């Protein structure tokens, strides 16, 4: 991954996606094969650490609200992607 990106800096959405994809490429292998409860606990701990890093309660609340809105917006997109991957895997097993 490249140097950290300050969210205040203007950046092209494609660059954001490349950064996200790079980070996910590193995180996925760590979580692969772990059960969903352990995966959720690890991700929850990461979010908790991220929120704890904000300087005051108002910043934490703002970051938490922003995070919740963001992850909720991703659920339908990721669900569709996961269904596509599962369908493709079934297609390879059952030609």
SSE layout and pairing:
Elements (H helix, E strand, L loop, with lengths): L12 H19 L4 H17 L4 H37 L2
Please characterize this protein's 3D structure.
The chain has 95 residues and is mainly alpha-helical. The chain has a domain at 36-95. Helices cover 77% and strands 0% of the residues. It contains three helices and no strands. The protein has helices spanning 13-31, 36-52, 57-93. The protein is globular, with a radius of gyration of 17 Å. The model has no long low-confidence stretch (mean pLDDT 82).
Name the descriptors.
mainly alpha, 3 helices, 0% strand, globular
Number of strands: 0
Strand fraction equals: under 5%
The main β sheet shows up as: none
Q: SSE order in H/E notation? A: HHH
Give the integer mean of the pLDDT values: 82
| Proportion in helices | over 70%
Compact summary:
The protein has helices spanning 13-31, 36-52, 57-93. With 95 residues, the protein is mostly helical. The chain is globular.
